[in-house]
Amino acid sequence: MIELSTPNGLSAQVPENESEDPSPHFTIKDLAGIQAYYEANGYVVVNGLLDPSTCDEMRALWNDEIKPSTHPIYRQETSRLELNRFNDRGWVMNPILNPQSVDPRQFPRFRKAAREQVLNSSGYASILQHIFGERPKVVQAMYFEGNSETWEHQDSYYLDSEHIGSLMGVWFALEDIGPKAGRFFVCPKSHLFNWPKRSLKNNVVDAHVPFIQSVVQTFLHSDSVIHSPALRKGDAVIWNACTIHGSLGTQDEARSRSSVTCHVIPASHRFLRLHHSVVDVPTEDMGNVLLHAPKDLAQARYRAIKWCETTFPRLFWALKKRLRRIEIRFEMLFG
Q1: Distance, CA of 227 to CA of 69 (rounded, Å)
Q2: pTM for this prediction
Q3: Counting Cβ atoms within 10 Å, is residue 199 exposed (0-12), middle (13-18) or buried (19+)?
């Protein structure tokens, strides 16, 4: 067991392998056990949700199509178009936002595999359908290679179902994740904490830092601990929108942590963005899941928006931030 710290200094005991892991590991055969543990603890670890060959193929396509690219791609940390940013080891450090939406003219095989082999994979879809009681709807996804380190947070602050706490996150390991590679961490039972309602004082546009500080303080005033599950290639962590989680800093720069994350809601639910805007998002029926593709660059209108953003970036983002602030304040005052 290795002792590390979260981005804001919370202590995390990190197991070097599954035998040291305080988090039980389930298999797809135990749907009842998975659901019971998830509902009690706000997360669950499931082994073998992706076939290792699928994981290898995704990483190979990443190396073939994404890493050599000179095209800007939407990124998870900023939601903006950026070129690849590499560290000294050659890992891409700015994760992709919504691999299901990348331009099929530039990244055809990567996009197809992300959509059909990961986001539509039957294993996790059957778990979510069992818990939801209906088909799952993917509303967002991300692809990581290098570890960008993620602060302690709840997904619900940024996105959720219209029925708060119904959204679930899934983190697929595309390779064995070493204990010092920047593991995913989670705070068991934190989905049961008494969280404050969203207001003008803690909205995502104006008060992001105070929100993160409140998450840390809530943890410190609880008797909770931090778990950082040992994951091998194909394993996954599933968690609740209200559960505190994040990723640890990298201690071993020689290790990547290739992974795909997605956020999923029940098919009949509408999508809640930034805790103020409820939308019925368009989806494509993939068979096992319904898939939403934000800013899908297969569509001409989103390619036009991309052109505006890359041609006039400062003006584009200044206007977008102003409009978002107005929208949030109007919704909270009159919605």
Answers
A1: 36
A2: 0.89
A3: exposed
